[in-house]
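Convert to structure. Protein one:
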Amino acid sequence: MPILRWTMERVSDHLVFKRRMPRQFGGRPIYVTPGSALKYWRLDLGRIDPDLLRFVQTYVHPGHQVWDIGANVGLLSFAAAGLTGTQGGVLAIEPDTRLVEVIRKSLRLQENADLRLDVLPVSVASDLGISHFHIAARGRSANHLAVAKGSSQTGGTSTTYPVVTVTLDWLLEKYGKPDIIKIDVEGAEHLVMQGGERVLRDARPVFLCEVSDFNSPFISDLFKKNHYQIFDWEKNDNKPVDLAPFSTLALPR
C-alpha cells in the first residue's frame, strides 16, 4: 500500500466532517467520516456514489418505505428520507457503533428534525441471534460479519465484537412492508437474502444489492425463483442479465 494512502487512512479514522446533501434530495446537512472511506474527504456528496444516488432518484417516491441494509454514514438513508416525505420513512441498519453515532449526530441537527428516519444498530443475516462483526483495518466501509468472506479492501481486522443479527422477515413483522431495499454487506448478501423468504414472496420490494462474485449464482437463482428480473445498475442500459452483477438491480415482475 502506498505510504500516502496508509497515512491518510490512519489520520481519517476519527475525523467527522459536516457536509450537505445534493439539492435534489433536500440539501440537508449530514455528518460523514473519511474513516469509512477516503472518498468522504470530498466536499461534494453528489460525487461520492453517483450510482447510488441515481437509484434513489429513480425509484424512491413520496410515501415509500426504504430499508438501508449496511447504511454506513447514511448517504442513501438521508437521500431517501429527503424524498419519502411525512407519509414514508427510512430504516437505516448499521452494526458499526461508530458509524451509527455519525448517523445519529446527523439526525440531531435541527434541520433534520422532521425526517422520518430510524437507525437500528444490528446486522441482518439468515437467523435471529448473535454473530461476530469484524472492523476493517482500513476503511470501515469494508467491515463485515465474521461468517462472511468480506472483501479485498479490509486490510485485515482491527477488532471484532459481537452483534445482534435479525432477518428481513423479522423486520417485515416489526416495520411492515418495504418498497425499496438496498443491501451492501460485504459478502454477507446471501445470508441477508436467506432470511427474507416472506419479504420476497409478499412484500416484493425493489432491490439494489451489492453482490460478490462468489455469491452471484445463489443470488441470481433466488431472484429468478421469486420472479424478479435482474439488471446491471452500473451499466444503466435497461437490459436484463442472467447472472447477478456487482451492482444488482432486481425488479419484481
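Protein two, convert as well:
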Amino acid sequence: MGKVITKPNIPNPDDFYARLLAAHDGLSDVESTTLNARMVLILANHIGDTDVLDEALSMAKQPAEAKRRSA
C-alpha cells in the first residue's frame, strides 16, 4: 500500500507551475476544466494505486469541506 508524498518532490516546482498555467493560456473555462480533468486522469492512471488515489482525493477535498463548514 502506497502513501501520498506530501513533501516537495518535483525538481523546479515553480517552473512546472508556470508551464501548467501556460497550458491554460487562451483556453475557455470549459477547455481549461477539461484540461485539468484530463491531467488528473492521466496522472491517476500513472499512479495506479487506488489507496494512494483515495488518500489524495481525501486530501484534495479537505479545504473545500472546511470552507463549507465555516460558511
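The chain has one domain: 13-70. The helical segments are 13-23, 29-47, 50-70.
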